[in-house]
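*** Protein under study ***
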Amino acid sequence: MDTTKLDLNLLLTLEALLAEQNVTKAAVRLHLSQPAVSAQLNRLREMFDDPLLLPARRGMTPTDKALELLIPLRESLEKLRRTLYSHQNFYPERANLTVTIACTDYIQAAVIMPLVLALRKKAPGVRIAVRHLDMAQLDQQLARSEVDLVFASHDSFHTQLRTRYLFDESYVLIGRHDHPALKTNLSLEEFVKLEHVIVSPSGGSFTTPIDDALKAFGHKRNVVMSAASFLFLPEIVKKSDLVALIPRRLVQAHSGLLSVTELPWLAEQFDICLIWHERSHSHAGHRWVRELIIEMNS
């Protein structure tokens, strides 16, 4: 049998015919005309190379082949119906779903951790798999279902992807408690003289867009270390006189453990958007997870 030309409607007709054992009743059940069902029965006979249903005194009698097909046919169609139904209706408390998210370490701490804690209460069967954000592979990963959701800035993705703005993020300066140089109303001149740790996701760089902005005003900060992760910064500044600029939301995870200094003159900020592919846009489970993320972060 050539399954590439398989017509699902024929299987639905076969199911109805085997249940009703009468062409007229099967036609009523399928909301089709009797000639249309008779024509589909002829196609089914060709497909299975078997009469399937034979004329009898009352209705039709299934052949041995038809009886052999009955149970697997019903099970397969019922499984298909449940699959289609599950994509339209999602019940968090009893759902089983895995969502793969690509993001930075900062998003893992500031957004994903609260999300996972919320899911344990609302949807314990929903699992989160986190992958490192690789912008060069983003389109392919989304298209191949390797990634379901992405957290990134608005200028990081292509317009053909689905997006939802979540929030704007700004920076604060962190250091250890009782740091001798940290104070309210820290000036730009005082700021650049501090010993800074910065984050270079690609590794090894001692400048960031913030340094480019400072350079435009004739300033250069004293960068003594380049780290690969924001998550490393709170630990090292707590044990030294080093300071670091980190996204504001990341401070919440270390509330009370660090000295936090506002810098009103620092205008540098970035936005965070939720990004997904058209393939998962209508999936009820994925839609529910997206709506939860939006509710928690907007």
Remarks:
- The longest strand covers residues 162-175.
- Residues 52 and 63 are 5 Å apart (CA to CA).
- The mean pLDDT is 89.
- The radius of gyration is 30 Å.
